[in-house]
Amino acid sequence: MHTYNRFPVVLRKGRGIRVWSADGKEYLDFVGGVAANVLGHCHPKVVVAIQKQAQRLIHVSNFYHIEPQIKLAKLLVTNSFADKVFFCNSGAEANEAAIKLARKYAKESHVQHHNQDRFEIITAINSFHGRTLAAVTATGQEKFQRGFEPLVPGFKYVPFNDFNALEAAITKSTCAVLLEPIQGEGGVKIPADDYLRKVRALCDKHEILLMLDEVQTGIGRTGKLFAYEHYGITPDIMTLAKGLGGGVPIGAMLATEKVASGFKPGNHASTFGGNPLVCAAAIATLETILEDGFILDHCNRMGGYFIERLEQLKEYCEQVVAIRGKGLLIAMELTRDGMPIVKACLERGILINCTGGGNVLRFMPPLTVEEKDIDHLVEALDELLGKSL
Ligand SMILES: Cc1ncc(COP(=O)(O)O)c(C=O)c1O
Hints:
Blueprint: E1 11-15, E2 18-21, E3 26-29, H1 32-35, H2 44-56, H3 67-78, E4 84-88, H4 91-108, E5 120-124, H5 133-138, H6 142-145, E6 155-158, H7 163-169, E7 174-179, H8 195-206, E8 209-213, E9 237-240, E10 251-255, H9 257-260, H10 276-290, H11 294-316, E11 320-326, E12 329-334, H12 339-347, E13 350-351, E14 353-355, E15 360-363, H13 371-385
Parallel strand pairs: 3-13, 5-6, 5-7, 7-8, 8-9
Antiparallel strand pairs: 1-2, 2-3, 4-10, 9-10, 11-12, 12-15, 14-15
Bound molecules: pyridoxal-5'-phosphate (PLP).
Pyridoxal-5'-phosphate (PLP) binds at residues 34, 90-92, 95, 128-130, 180, 184-185, 213, 215-216, 241.
């Protein structure tokens, strides 16, 4: 169906940060499968893990225990705040699961104030949480919701990074707050250093859940395994997808033991969620990232270098309004529409993305990107921004 405005390119092969089209043209990929390809294309460890698992067992059912799923869950809980994991297939599904768990936990827990039914979830304006009906309702952007009404009841929106607005929005019906630690689709918006700490304290005070959508920011993208680690807090629920599988479709919803107890057998499920094949790919991806911290250090160094180069460009280019980023989730806000730049980059063999209302160029290369790749992109941007495209 015509749900995408695709570029006129057929991509056939990839290695690291490079992809090749069917007609043999080489591209430097700074879209990275929209932040999914954390290790680049066809990383050997991920490829071998998929090959081996495909020969052993591809799919069974969650009626039975699955060895790679157990191993992946252990890796995730060992390296995060969480005690429990639910596996699904995408970011939207992970958020859908989080929304359902928040409602169920509120119904079952003993923290209900005055026996009031607690179901309301507060999210941020300009957030992005996915396209299923509840996830798109949680998404604080009307353009994604228009035409799909009636939306799911029980959502409320406040400006991101505005603590007072959030505090004022909490009522006796509120059961959770759902936020991206850094807004990705919204244009790489980074909150004040103390925002999430204050939100955490507010949630504790009112006994409501803090749910972080780390679908885009998680799995090393911002230079730490999870973005919440930058802010000295932990959430009650976290959602993951994108980078988790190194390119294969897998999502996960993680929670503390206490909150996870809101779900009982039969409350939620997914046929493919956490199947042997995708878990094997995710284990290889996570283990590679966690190995002696090399990739996270590299991501931080390259992120710093990338931002420095873009800042230099900003100094003399009037079309550049701001540079924002953490790790290798980086944006350049322009005074103009970014799409002609995206198309001109494509012609030169560089893939970039444009978001945040159309005037923000967003870069999400593999965490293994090298200085020379960044130089190549920045030189192209420098030249293109000087032209009247
Ligand atoms: C923060 C965030 N949440 C959720 C999603 C939805 O993920 P998916 O497309 O896998 O459903 C996205 C996708 O861009 C995202 O950036």
